Amino acid sequence: MAEVYTEPVPSAFGAEPADPGTPLPLDGRGAGPDGAALDGIAATFARGNYGTAAPQGASGVRAAHAAPRPASGGSPILSVRSVEKVFGSRDSVTHALAGVSFDVAGGEFVGIMGPSGSGKTTLLNCVSTIDTVTSGHIIVGGRDITGMSRRQLAKFRRDDLGFIFQDSNLLDTLTGFENIALALTIKGEPARSIPAKVNAMAARLGVDGVLQKYPYQMSGGQKQRIAAARAMVTDPKLILADEPTGALDSRAATVMLEIMEMMNRQMGATIMMVTHDAFAASYTNRVLFIKDGAVFNELRRGDEARDAFFARIMEVVSFLGGEAGHVS
Ligand SMILES: Nc1ncnc2c1ncn2[C@@H]1O[C@H](COP(=O)(O)OP(=O)(O)O)[C@@H](O)[C@H]1O
Ligand SMILES: [Mg+2]
Fold first, then answer.
1. Residue 301 buriedness (CB in 10 A; 0-12 / 13-18 / 19+)
2. What pLDDT score does 69 carry?
């Protein structure tokens, strides 16, 4: 169970140029660290506006460029509170998570970035209840999932979470329609109401044309959009996406990201997406940077255009990449 979420593609945080298999920034911006970007980030640090694992969490970790953002109101959908995850015992102990705290409000699309080994997968596994925390609390929709029984967790995953993995994880022996319908069946939806829901969701995500196809007959992008429809159709509180564009070419990745943006903006989905790709992260409203198992920095997009947000994300990526000597 150690690595359910794997990252076969080298991280954009590495010192090497981006891997050709990685969806590259499509707007022609370079990914390499450059002097200007480092100056920008250095200035951020000089102003003391970055946070280093502030125990009070993300609220205290405002980036220098953060644009003012209207209060989202209401209680957060997700609260991660001082979460620690320790692997191993005595001789070899790894603090994969070393006191992570942040909130995700309803209607947010949050990106989680960080160098390889920084704890992103561990964090996602803890929120998705695939793994348990060593200490701290994770509250989803007002309920602390760290104290739930196995039975409660199974119901929680089924009713409150949607998942989009790097590889779509569709069942090969089911059609697109059946894959989406299954999520509703498992949730206990009455059979008569299922077809309309599946068809409507597939239409919104642009995959109504492949509903009768099996996964092997679909393109990578179509499979990911079927997977997104499967995640959305049960109307979950929170959608967790792990490198959802990691296995797609840049064109299909862009389509997928536009779909996720639409799910967030027009359909009200709350999404937390782990990615090593600054281009993917630039579609979110806010990016949390994880380093050594804690929140290191946060960027909010505000009303900024995606290009400009991308440039700011790259500044932090370059900075982190430049000093990330540890690559697991
Ligand atoms: N099952 C495990 N046993 C021991 N160490 C682990 C395990 N899973 C992850 N780690 C360690 O925890 C740290 C964070 O890993 P991970 O969450 O996979 O990082 P990321 O996804 O950001 O690359 C790394 O040092 C990794 O080696
Ligand atoms: Mg990982």
1. buried
2. 40
Phi, psi of 287 (to 5 degrees): -120, 130
| Cα–Cα distance for residue pair 229/210, rounded to 1 Å | 12
Enumerate residues with CB within 5 Å of ligand 2 (an ion).
7, 121
Closest ligand 1 atom to Cα of 85:
12
Give the least confident one: 45-54, 158-167, 238-247, 289-298.
Answer: 45-54
- 150 sits in which H/E element: helix 150-160
CB burial class (10 A; 0-12, 13-18, 19+) of residue 100? Answer: buried
Q: Is the dihedral of CA 144, 167, 115, 27 positive or negative?
A: negative
Of 76 and 10, more confident: 76
Please name the residue whose Cα sits nearest to atom 7 of ligand 1: 2
Rounded alpha-carbon distances, angstroms, from residue 285 to 179, 249, 251, 306 = 29, 23, 21, 10
Tell me whether strands 238-242 and 271-274 are parallel, antiparallel or unpaired: parallel
Count of C-beta atoms within a 10 Å radius of residue 263 = 24
Structure tokens, 296 = 């290191």
Do 112 and 288 touch, CB atoms closer than 8 A?
yes
Q: How far is the CA of 116 from the centre of ligand 1 (A)?
A: 9
The answer, yes or no, to whether residue 166 has pLDDT greater than 60, is yes
The domains found in the chain, sorted by start residue, are 76-323 (3.40.50.300)
Region for 186 from its dihedrals, namely left if φ exceeds 0, alpha if ψ lies in -120 to 50, beta otherwise: alpha
Structure tokens at 206: 């642009």
Q: Give the contacts of 55 (CB within 8 A, at least 6 positions apart).
A: 82, 99, 101
Pairing of β 271-274 and β 135-140:
unpaired
Query: What does the angle CA 313 – CA 76 – CA 78 come to, to the nearest 5 degrees?
Result: 70
Strand partners, 30: none
